[in-house]
Each structure stands twice: as C-alpha cells, then as structure tokens.
Amino acid sequence: MVIFLLDAAAGIRQSDDEISPSLWAASLLVIVAPNKTDPVRRRELLAVLEDARRKPSIEPIPICARAGAGMADRLIPVIVESYP
User: What are the tens digits of pLDDT across the range 22-38?
Assistant: First the structure.
C-alpha cells in the first residue's frame, strides 16, 4: 500500500505526474491523499480532486494533517479496510 500525498495548496505538480506511473506499476494499492486542504478555496480543491481522479487509484481522500481533518474519519478507515 502506498499513500501518495499531494500538496493541495500547490495543485498537482509535474513531479507528481512523473512519479505516479511508477507507483501504479508496482501493483500496490495507491491511496491518493491531497494534503493541506484547509487553506485551499473550494473551487481550487475541486480542481485538484478532479486531477487526482485521473490517477488509477481509489477515490482521492482530501486531508489536512495539521488539523487532523479527514484522517480519522476517512483516511484511516480506508487503510484499515484495505490492509490484507
């Protein structure tokens, strides 16, 4: 399992696009988690989530690690449920 953290405030960068094929080629479950969602305007966050949905993974799980938003209620349950 790989948790692919993206910086939601910066959007999906070229480096994210460059590394992502190797993550999926490893045949592991990839969880895309845009982080730092708290300062991002809703419209910008929706654009980041739409870009993340183009990656072959489960539905992106937006989080804010600093505030803990999306961690206990969304990210951790997906990790637990996906663990073999």
Answer: 887 888 888 889 888 88
Amino acid at position 15, single letter? S
Q: Report CA dihedral (79, 55, 51, 21) to the nearest 10 degrees.
A: 110
The CA distance from 50 to 5, in Å, is 15
Name the residue type at position 36.
K
**Cβ-contact 52, 12 below 8 angstroms:** yes
In angstroms, the CA 21 to CA 36 distance is 23
pLDDT tens for each residue of 35-74: 888 887 888 878 878 877 776 667 789 999 889 999 999 9
List the domains of the chain with CATH numbers.
2-82 (3.40.50.300)
Class of residue 42 by CB neighbours under 10 A (exposed 0-12, middle 13-18, buried 19+): exposed
